[in-house]
Design brief:
The chain is of the alpha+beta class. The protein has helices at 43-56, 62-73, and strands at 27-31, 37-41. It contains two helices and two strands.
Amino acid sequence: MTGRRKPYTARGIHRVPCSRCGSPSLHQWQVCANGNRWLGVCLDCDIALNRLSLEFMAVPNADGLMAAYEARARGRA
């Protein structure tokens, strides 16, 4: 298992590389299948992970929700 048992602090998360691509992390995800450990994710991977989750769950208007989330996340909203 990889990750951390406790959530990262707001300051500490920036020191952790993204679990997927290695860029500096901005957000963190807790994954049940990974023993509920916290993993760091960068902004681009966070957006991709959110998109994948909405599509997997067949959430109505996933494209609209993602457009709004990405605009907010990138500071364009």
